[in-house]
Amino acid sequence: MSLQADSFLWLALHRVHRGGVARKGEQLCYRGRPMPPGLLGELYEYLLEDGALVLGAPDGSGMQRVRLTEAGLARYQVLDQRQRRLGLVVVLPAPDHGPPAVLTPAGRRSSPAPLEVSGGRPDPAA
Question: Which of 33, 70, 79, 87 is most buried as measured by Cβ atoms within 10 A of its Cβ?
Answer without folding.
Answer: 79
